[in-house]
């Protein structure tokens, strides 16, 4: 038994279990049964007596007996209360962790940094607005788009539409119809809810992940205005 989990030492656990099995016994008998040195047995028995787990029988030769194992429930309840308090402390720490200031802008350079920052973007819950330059097709992005639509989030794209991008744009139109043309000389933007915006400067090979609500709200507003003025693409 792992009585150490509720506050008993290894020796206390062994002595108590031995007493439950043998009933009434002398210190030397208990030491032998529990495999605890005779020089230590009285210290362990006294500790168990203080915890209400051992009773002394005042006979000519002092003997000991265990109390009802139900008394262990007091230790179990005390341990549970202690763990509940720790749980509340953990929740408080979690709130502090969640409320601390997060770096509002992270900048990365190169393709590896782009994919790393892209992986840190949250999943869309209400809206996902994208401005695409290359309209690169990746299966994981298609799955994410389908999941977004399935959950009822609004998905809108503004894309560069020419001979180079036409094929992939047509693929995207099979997933959703909110795709319109925009003149684009090298910018990719992804805006998810009011949580995050990722901006890629294609020719500079630089990507920024921004988590500033005021900036995101402004960019969403500008996207919506640009979307209304843009030309639809026939499927």
Give a written overview of the molecule.
The structure is a single chain. The protein contains 8 helices and 10 strands. The protein has 235 residues and is of the alpha+beta class. It folds into 2 domains: 70 residues, Winged helix-like DNA-binding domain superfamily/Winged helix DNA-binding domain (Arc Repressor Mutant, subunit A, Orthogonal Bundle), CATH 1.10.10; 125 residues, 2-Layer Sandwich (Endonuclease, Chain A). The strands form 2 sheets. A 7-stranded mixed sheet has the order 4-10-9-8-5-6-7, sandwiched between helices. Strands 1-3-2 form a 3-stranded antiparallel sheet. Strand 5, helix 6 and strand 6 form a beta-alpha-beta unit. Helix 1 crosses helix 2, helix 1 crosses helix 3 and helix 2 crosses helix 3. It is rod-shaped. The model has no long low-confidence stretch (mean pLDDT 90).
Topology order in helix (H) and strand (E) letters? HEHHEEHEHEHEHEEEEH
Question: Can you count the beta strands?
Answer: 10
The assigned structural class equals alpha+beta
Ranges where pLDDT stays below 50 over 5 or more residues in a row are none
Cross-sheet strand order for the largest sheet: 4-10-9-8-5-6-7
Q: What would CATH call the class of the largest domain?
A: Alpha Beta
* Helical percentage: 40-55%
3D shape: rod-shaped
Q: Nearest-angstrom radius of gyration?
A: 34 Å
Task: From the 3D structure, determine the CATH topology of the largest domain.
Answer: Endonuclease, Chain A
Largest sheet: 7 strands, mixed
Query: How many distinct folded domains?
Result: 2
Spell out the CATH superfamily of the largest domain.
Endonuclease Chain A
Summed up, the helix count is: 8
Q: Whole-number average pLDDT?
A: 90
Tell me the distance between the termini.
Answer: 69 Å
Percent in strands:
15-25%
Q: What's the architecture of the largest domain in CATH terms?
A: 2-Layer Sandwich
């Amino acid at each position: 038994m792992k009585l150490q989990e509720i506050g008993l030492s290894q020796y206390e656990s062994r002595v108590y279990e031995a007493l439950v099995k043998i009933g009434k016994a002398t210190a030397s008998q208990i030491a032998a049964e529990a495999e605890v040195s005779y020089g230590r047995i009285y210290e362990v028995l006294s500790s168990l007596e203080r915890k209400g787990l051992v009773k002394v029988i005042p006979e000519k030769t002092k003997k000991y007996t265990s109390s009802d194992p139900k008394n262990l429930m007091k230790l179990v309840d005390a341990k549970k209360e202690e763990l509940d308090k720790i749980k509340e402390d953990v929740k408080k720490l979690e709130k502090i962790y969640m409320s601390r200031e997060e770096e509002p802008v992270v900048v990365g350079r190169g393709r590896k940094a782009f994919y790393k920052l892209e992986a840190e973007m949250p999943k869309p819950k209400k809206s996902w607005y994208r401005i695409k330059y290359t309209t690169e097709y990746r299966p994981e992005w298609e799955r994410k788009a389908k999941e977004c639509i399935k959950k009822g989030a609004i998905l809108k794209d503004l894309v560069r539409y020419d001979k180079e991008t036409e094929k992939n744009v047509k693929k995207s139109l099979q997933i959703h119809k909110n795709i319109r043309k925009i003149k684009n000389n090298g910018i990719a933007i992804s805006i998810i809810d009011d949580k995050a915006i990722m901006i890629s400067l294609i020719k500079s090979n630089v990507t920024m992940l921004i988590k500033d609500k005021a900036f995101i709200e402004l960019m969403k507003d500008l996207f919506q205005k640009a979307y209304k003025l843009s030309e639809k693409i026939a499927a």
